[in-house]
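User: two proteins, same treatment. go.

Assistant:
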Amino acid sequence: MRKGMAVWLLAVTMALCSGRKPAQAQDSTPKAEAPKPTQAFRLDFSLNEFEDGKKINNRHYSINVNVPGESREVKIGSRVPVAVGSSESKNALVNTQYQYIDVGTNISSELTERGDELLLRVSSEISNLDADPNHEARFGPVVRQIKMSGSTVVIPGKPMVIGSVDDPASNRQFQLEVTVTKLK
């Protein structure tokens, strides 16, 4: 009897320590959904410039993204040196210190899925240097900037305006537009 009890106790102990889960009915727990396949999209941005309501300039930028939640950035421009200080050395030479600023076009975007919809977040900055040489000689360069950011639900294949701004120094208007295309 003792031997039979010891065998039974050993069997119960091994079963508990082996990490086995208790038996369950087949449909008692929900099945995990298969992961959604990654889908690729192309984002075609158009930066349109209007003067007196007439389109005078148009620039295009394209990037590919995979969803969900992938961020991408387009950055085109120059790094411009700006004098921030100077000092004289012992031999009367002037040492000038420079700081570099980015000037050009920068578009950051993130495409995510929200249910059956595509949500696009965009942040853009367009900057350039003022062309007035008199101002630059006296005070350094003047940087003109246009910033737009926002989010919208996009429909693949349909152009969507992200933002539109008027230039306060002229009668020009700038418009950022995007078309999202599903890639195969």
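Protein 2:
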Amino acid sequence: MDADVDQDWIVATGLVDPDSDPGDLLRINVEVPLRLFDLLVDGARPRQRRLVTFGSVLENRPDLANTNAYLESKAKLLEAWQARSNGSPVAWIHLQLHTLYGGGKPPHPFMFTGQMFSALSFRTPFPMSAGGQLREYHHLDDVAESLAGLLSRDALDSQCVTFSSGCPVRLRDLASSIFTHFGAEDLLLIGARSAADAEVFDNPYRRSPELIADREPCEGVIRWFETLGLQPAHCASRSTV
């Protein structure tokens, strides 16, 4: 933390399920950080307090945000940052993140990793699209380390920061690596479903200097699944998943 900064406030909670009630998504993902921002601004000296919020790299893609209530809430938070952070005594750092993984709990069932984890756990078929979509997967520990490095800088002003490696993986390559590792290639049905037209098929991202730690995503997700108890097919009888 900068020696002149008394307080760093990090809003690390929020709703991520796009099927959540849209009103709840707006209240939790937008109104809560805005109310905190207003409280921090009251009586603050310039750069005395800093606020960190988290968004998505897809929040400024209207073609996606208009069909996803979660992304729509993040787009509204970004709009609020654009309207209120300039000239504020509180340095508001808004981080745009790619897909996160890691931790001690299984992935959310609505996420791609969650769908793969469920199929591998119960040895059920996994139908997916042709998998040409591009995604970056970042371990939450790497993001935390990068955020700590960012907040250690002096004279940090309000800014929107994207943590990108610039090296996305196609979903079919991620799924193929994971299902092959766990001896379940026969369960992976690539091309069985259609992909949405509003998707990321070309890489618009470049390496962010603020991202000081990252790991290879296929290997990273495999190791995470293993820590959650997932085992290759020949060990399935001993699995506790």
